Model the fold of this input.
Amino acid sequence: MPAQNPASAAAVSANVVEIEHVLSRMTYLAGRARQHERLMALAGLDLDRAAVAILRNLAASDPVRPGVLAVRLTVEASHVTRQLRQLERGGYVVRVADPEDRRAQRVQLTDAGLAAVERIREVSRRGVALALAEWTPEELEHLAVLFRRLVHDFLVHTETPLDLPARTSAVSPM
Done:
């Protein structure tokens, strides 16, 4: 008998169904290749989506080891290593010695990398402002409060380990 996820065992409200649908749609819209190409054209940059994710992440933190960056982005370390090489060649990031372990390196943004992130943020903010131009300041404040709470609650939920039963092997012992 398959184990049930506790969240799926209980019936969910129509509002939760709608929220999940809207979040899926927002993720799709934000992640479309066409949207990324438009963002890069307006920012005057030629970076792929993975590079932008790395730059944004680095801008939000102190210098970090590539392995930590891979964990944060939930991708394979080899993927991050490949992207970092390209970003280094483009002058967006540099590797610096890890003060806690001289054998290790951390990655940090260069001035060009920081400028690129700022251009991306500015173009992205203008797009959001255009999309929400008809909203009142009160509606925008309410949305911002709810989004902050949503992100906080999602982080709390994803940081809490699930107590799922151990999977049984598909091969039965002889």
